Fold this sequence. Notes:
Number of strands: 8
Largest sheet: 6 strands, mixed
Radius of gyration: 20 Å
GO molecular function, one term: single-stranded DNA 5'-3' DNA exonuclease activity
Shape: globular
Structural class: alpha/beta
Oligomer: single chain
Pfam family, one: Exo5
Number of helices: 12
InterPro entries: EXOV
Strand content: 15-25%
Family: Belongs to the EXO5 family.
Distance between the termini: 49 Å
Protein name: Exonuclease V-like isoform X2
Amino acid sequence: MNVLNDFWNDDDQELANIDVLENCVNCENISAAQRLECDSIIRTKGTPQICFRPEYLTVSDLVKQQWCEQQLVYSLDPGIYLIRAPPGMVVDIEETPEQKLVKKKGSDIHFQRELEIQVPIQVNIETKEDDWGVKFLNLQFAVQSFYNGNRLAREIPVFGVPFDKDVFVYGIIDELQYNLNEYTVIITELKTRRNSFPPKQGQIRKDKYQVSLYAQLFNDLVEGRFSKELMAAKLQLNINAQFSKSVMKHITQSRINSANKIHTLGALIDAVLTQVQAMPPVHFAKVEYIHQETKQVISVVDFCLDFQSLAEQYSRHIEWWLAKRDLPVL
Length: 330
């Protein structure tokens, strides 16, 4: 199977598959005064969403928040961290060479796994509408591969407005496993680790939250809770604008019904959702941890998705992005 690759940056890959967060700032050492000052600085610029993510959040943003909200703030605006540094303290907000190497190794492993079942194809895009068209095409390719008898799809884009919270979210699922006989889909996330020890419970909670968000976005697409009009409004897209020739070429080569009649993002969304909504929703998930050096499996965490618990956590996180609460005081 071929997947399309464009020149736009997909922020959700920033931390997606590497456990570098184990060495993050210790939130317990941050005082109430520091948290309030951070909130005050942010509020002078607008809500956190308007200030940092005016169009959409990535799943990675929310995963960082689940791990440590204060570190999320520092990553969004390093200047806040510099303001809070004691006088005379030398602060380095750049990634260390070791952290960069860890990320590269993790990314390389994921790219190798992707190449096992699909080959990325470079696509030149000219507009935001082209960019999102490519994302929908990659979603369609994944679903079409299941209809063609394949059991695996990797690097599947998902997006939407989870739990009707009026915030658009985008992410990339690591892997979907489809069982045609049982008509079930399982979502899988691969995490690479520098050491060969199983992850701690805090790490597992973070990773389960990430996978659960992916599942919610996928299920919203499958169960008809996606609105192209809301997407257009949030992302400032013209869903009636014509695609560029490069994107049109791949649409006509796809196996979408009446592909030769699809010229706009709105028409493509309708066609792709028709196929997606024939899929079953996801109820089960697993996180697989492997050692970066040996590629050996360290542990596998299987779990049933708990969307009620997810909704509570997600709602709490979104409240901060919409400036409905301050950072918590520990």
